Each structure stands twice: as C-alpha cells, then as structure tokens.
Amino acid sequence: MAIPEATINKIKEEADIVQVIGEFVKLEKKGNNYKGLCPFHQDNNPSLTVSPTKKIYTCFSCGAKGNIFTFLQNYHNISFVEAVKFAGEKCGIDVNIDSYHNLNQNYEKFYNLLQTATNFYEFFLKNSAEGKEAREYLHKRKLNDEIIKRFRIGLAPKDNDLLYKSLLNEKYQPLDMIEAGVVRSYKDSYFDIFRNRIVFPLEDINGHIVGFSGRIYSKKSDEPKYLNSSENKIFKKGNLLFNFFRNINDIRLKDKVYVFEGFMDVIAASRAGINNAVATMGTALTNEQIRALSKVTKNVVICYDGDAPGIEAAKKAIYLFTETGLNPQAVLMPEGLDPDDFINKFGKEKLLALLNEAESGIEFLYEVAKKKLNNEDLNSLQYFKTDVFQSLRFYRSNVLTEKFLERMAGDLEVSIESLQADYRRTSGRPVLIRKKLPEKRKEKPVKLKYMGSEKQLIKISYQNKDNCFKIYQAIGIDFVDSRNYVILNKIYDFYQKNDIMNFDDFSQVLDEEEEQLIKEILETKDIFDKQSIDVLVKQVKDHTKEKLYEKIKNDYKKNPNEENWRRLVSVKKELTSLKE
Questions:
Q1: Which residues in 79-229 belong to E strands, given as ranges?
Q2: Which fold has domain 101-234?
Q3: Does domain 238-366 have CATH number 3.30.720.10?
Q4: ∠ CA 250-255-256 to the nearest 5 degrees?
Q5: Fewer Cβ close by (within 10 Å): the C or N end of the chain?
Q6: Helix/strand/coil for 77
Q7: Helix 5-14 vs helix 80-90: angle between axes, to the nearest 10 degrees?
Q8: pLDDT digits over 379-436, tens only?
Q9: What is the model's pTM?
C-alpha cells in the first residue's frame, strides 16, 4: 500500500537529519551546517555538508545530494518505502505498510518500544547523577563521548521500575514490554529487567534494535558482569550482526569486513579507526548472517579469540564462508586477550598490524594444525596429516594440494612421494592407474538429479516474487553449486525493490558468466518442471546430507572409534528417512 503524502512530509519535517546521518558518518559543526567525509566515494577531505535547516545533504566532490530518505536509500541500498519506514522509527512515527523486510507487521510495536527504551537509557546516562558515575567509568575504559553517541550506549537506573513507568506514560502496554524483553512481572507488580547497568543496544541485520546487553560498572556489585536479553519473538541471536546495518556502506566501500565474536570487540576496533567490523554475538554463523555479508563484500577477515573454542569457531567459519563463495582470511587474538584488552595493552597501531597479518583460509587451517605437531609423537603426526588432508579435500584444488603437500613433507621431514601416496589412499579419489570405475558412473545421475532440482528452483524464483521469497527462506545455504547460490541472492535482492522481473534490468547486476548461466537455466525444460517447490527443496537438502554422510564415513574409516560410529549411524538413519 502507498504511504500517505502527509505521513511522508511529517517524517521529513520531524526527523533530525543530522542525528540520522550522524549515526553513519562522523559530523562536525561548521557554522550553521555540519560537515563530514562523504560515504558515497573515497573521501579524504570532508566534502559532505548536512543542513539541519534545509534538511538536505550535499557532497561537493561526487555530487551526491538529497534529503533524509535518499540518504538512507543510497547508504543502505533499500527502497523508498523502507527508507521512510526507517526514518519514521527514528522520530517515533509509525508507518503502516503491509510488510517491511518480510517481517510480520505485529513486530513493529516491539521495534518502536525498544527504540523508546533506547532513548530513555541514553537520556538517563547523559542527565542523571548515576549517569555521571557511569560516564566516568566509560571514559576510563577509553570509550569517549563520540563512541558513546555512535553506539547509542545508555544507562539503566537503579530504581526497580523507572523504565516501566516511562514506557507506560508513552502508552505502551505491560504485556508488550514483557514480550519485548525489558520488563518482568511478579504477582501484581512490574519491574525493569536491566537495572544499574550500562546498556548497549543490539541490532538485527535490518537495523532494528531487538534487545540489549547490560554491563555492571560498580565495583561493589557481585552480579554477573553481563546480562543479555533473552531470546523472544524478535531477539534471536542468529539474526544479529552487530554494527552491520550502521556501517554497511563502509564495508561496501572498503570491500572487506572484519568479523568479531562480541560487540565490545567491534567497539574496540572502532576506537582503532576500523568501522567495517561486525560481531556475531558469540554464536555460530547462521545462513542469515552469511547472506547479509555476501551482499556487500566477498572479503571476510575472521578475528576470533585465540583459545580452543575460538580456534574451532574460526575453522568452522572458514569452511562456511568458503562454501558460500566468499573469500575468508583469519587472524587469532593472542590467547587471553580480546581486542579491547589488546588495544589498552599494546595500542591501536599494534591491533591494526595484527589484523593486517590475516592469513588466507587454507593457510590459517594449516598453521593451526601445525601448532599441535610434535614430530617425535606418531599420534601427533597422524592427527596433523588428517587435519591437513581434510582441509585439502574441502578446497578441491590440485594447485593447493601440491603446494601444501610439499610444505607438509618439509615439516614432517618425509618424502613428498610418501605423502602423496597417503593422500591418494585416504582422500577417496581413485588411483590414476585404475581405468574401470563403475561406482563413478553410478554417481552421475544422482548429481544430475540434485543439480536439476536446484536449477528448477532458480527458474521458479526468477519467474515469481512470492515463490522467490519462499525458496530463499527454505533453501538456506544448502546448494549443490555455489554459483546458483549467488544467482538466487541476486534474484532475491532484485525482488526486494521490484514486483516484476525484467531481464534487462536484472542483467545489470550479473557478470558475463552469471548471465549465461541464468539464460541456460531459463531455457531448460525437463522432468523437474512438474515437481513442487517443497519436493525440489527437499532434494537439494538431501544432497547436503549425503555430503555429510560421506564425510563422516571417511572420518570413521580413518578413526573407527565409538563416537564416529554413532555419528555415522545417526546421519545414515536421517538420510534414510529423508528418502522414504
């Protein structure tokens, strides 16, 4: 539905263009206007001017100009309706549209409520006696007023129900406060969940504040250091990507993103001048997070803690990013230090130097495996071989295999021939002298079935917007061919801004290979045309299960212990049930 002109004009008049643009660009007051580095080109001298009276922005270098809506559209690559919606949220005006980023309209009241709560926490930090003490604590932690403003850091009062009463005055219902995760009830009373804590707002991928993390700042407190929002209707850790929406354009311009584990890591990176950084909030990477990042850059630098869990998380992230067509690098923080501690101890220049030493995914996997190597211990030697062989099989590159087998031979002090023989024997690949491979012939129809189903899903997505959204949500990252994954993302992005597909317009976002591939898919007619979306999605997901089964089967052959046997039986049962 169309947004009434009166609503658009009201938002344009009431929204603070300096505050909104200031969330994404550092602005300094110059006379009656504000100036900052233009985010729409590589700007070294501040050439962006924002006029609070005229409510416009202008770049005198690249020519970018417009109002609050055009800034949000161009900065976040969103539609006009989405920009109006976003600006309305910033000034407390509800925009009644049918959908926004495919989210249920019922969630809007929670987004507005949490925006109001954030404003309350910010105000209390700036304008209370308790806030003075909290600000002094933040300053001691090297978080200056600019950082506090940029990340909208606030303070929850000591009082039991001050936020509750404030929200009640704003006409929010107690049940909505409870469901939004900021208030609890006990008998006939209500009390704030966050009390006497510095509060950090947490945003989802689309820029909505969906929860908070509260940190104690009083030395006398014996409570846990951090208190985070519990998962609810809108707060889902897998949908969070801290700092992504705020700095999506910076990531795009630099064509690189640094991925940390926690939001304090991102704030620390910001202190060092690194704004193209996000945090996954300590959870394993999800399809939603990977999709969001893949839309703006292919270059990812994973910056996790150097302890055992951090190393394992980094390894999994490398595999996931590589599998979906991204180019991951990785670096580990020294064990026991997070980026905040690292900067305080060594300075921001050392952090920048450390991040610049990031290794390619395969280099990182090799070096991590090598750290455990003890040439005097045969078990250690075997584990090292197994880890590296697994990585090489994943990358499926003859060049990388040759390079790293040569390096391994030197590190293990063995001949390259013996390593090559071990690799061929354990990799599942046939020895070259074997000419007859009937098993290989049997695999081809299976592969064609999966590929045919996947291409049919691409065709259906291309032809209809509703089907595209359904398939996009259902398929996740379970793709046979990563090129198809990229094309589906581009179709989905196109339909975010258009209701009808137009090939001439769509082809503008495709490279030559992708354009040829989509043409071939659209021209193909075969048995898959008559199958339903659900059946096609199931077939593609079966492929992922079969890959997992083969991997676990190889693991069991190399290490036939009870744990690998249980994994093998479990996946086999699941795979059998999928085919019934």
A1: 154-156, 183-186, 189-192, 197-203, 209-215, 226-228
A2: DNA primase DNAg catalytic core, N-terminal domain (3.90.980)
A3: no
A4: 85
A5: C
A6: coil
A7: 50
A8: 888 889 888 998 998 888 889 999 999 999 999 989 999 888 888 877 654 333 233 3
A9: 0.63
